[in-house]
Amino acid sequence: MTAFARRARATAARMHPELSLVSYTLLSHLEFEGGCRATDLAAHYTLDKSTISRQVGGLEKSGLVERRLDPTDHRVHVLHLTDRGNEVLSQVTDARRIAFHERLTEWSGPDLEKFAECLLRYNDAASRSDAGDPE
Predict the structure, then answer these.
(1) Most CB atoms within 10 A, among 69, 72, 87, 93?
(2) What is the pTM of this model?
C-alpha cells in the first residue's frame, strides 16, 4: 500500500507541475459536487480546517479555485473550479486514464474484473471504517 501511495503521489506530480495528489483530489471533489464550502471538504476528508484552508489558498493562488457567495446564504462562501481549474483537472484526468489504460492493457478480462471487484470491496470496507460503521 505504501508503494501504491508513493506511486500515486509521484504520478500526480508528473501529470501537472502545480497539482499534487491532494490538490487533484480536492478539485475532483469540487467538480463532482458542483462546488462546496471549505468546511464540507474538511468534514468529507476528515481533515483539520486549517489544512483545508492552506490547500484551498494554494489552489486559489494558482487560479484553479474561486470563492463565491452562496446564493441562498450570503454569509457563506462556496468554492468552485475556475475555467482554468476545469481545464487543468480535465488534462490530468485524461492523462491518468491513459496511464491506467497503458498499465492494464495486457490484463485479461477476468483479471480486470477481479481487480475491479477487489477495489470495490476495499473501498467499501474503507468507507465503512471511515464512517465508524462496525460492519
Answers:
(1) 93
(2) 0.77
Residue 26 pLDDT: 94
| Dist. CA 126–CA 52, nearest whole Å | 21
Q: How many CA atoms lie within 13 A of 23 on its CB side?
A: 28
Element (H, E) at 67: strand 65-70
- Whether 62 contacts 89, CB under 8 Å: no
Q: Which residues pair with 71 in a beta bridge?
A: none
Please name the amino acid found at residue 38.
A
Confidence at residue 73, expressed as pLDDT on a 0 to 100 scale? 87
The amino acid occupying position 87 is E
How many Cβ atoms sit within 10 Å of the Cβ of residue 107?
Answer: 12
